[in-house]
Structure prediction request, 155 residues.
Amino acid sequence: MDDRQMRAHVSSGRVARLATVTPTGQPHVVPVCYTIQGESIFSAVDFKPKSTIDLARLENVRAHPGVSLVIDRYDDEQWDRLWWVRVDGIARIIESGVEHTTALSMLRTKYPQYAQRRPTGAVIAVDIRRWTGWSATDAVTPRSARLDRQPARRE
Prediction:
């Protein structure tokens, strides 16, 4: 899968798994709604039931900003259609301002639920450093692409 195909899969995906590291070094993975613009992916703390809006993922990003997102397709038993893309990047927390407003607007466009009920929490922006992807139609080995265009490493 090339850069264009990976970006297309990420753009059309509906849910990602955000992997962060806790302040004590433990992995933490949660599903998130997201959108992509340029070389950044955005996710918001939304209105779904939570005990607090100061979520563990926010604390984790503050402690360790290196994160990964996995977007995949596994919705049937036809394995010739399977694919996944992992995005590695550096996360930032955005509480307000133009970038926050723009991210929320893009999320409302992608998800009708957000158009009906606007998220009010912080936004996590992931500045993409590398794409890695695989699809059943590719060769067995995943393909990587670094945005800084350094040589790609095979997974």
Summary: Residues 38 and 112 are 22 Å apart (CA to CA). Confidence is low (pLDDT under 50) at residues 149-155. The radius of gyration is 16 Å.
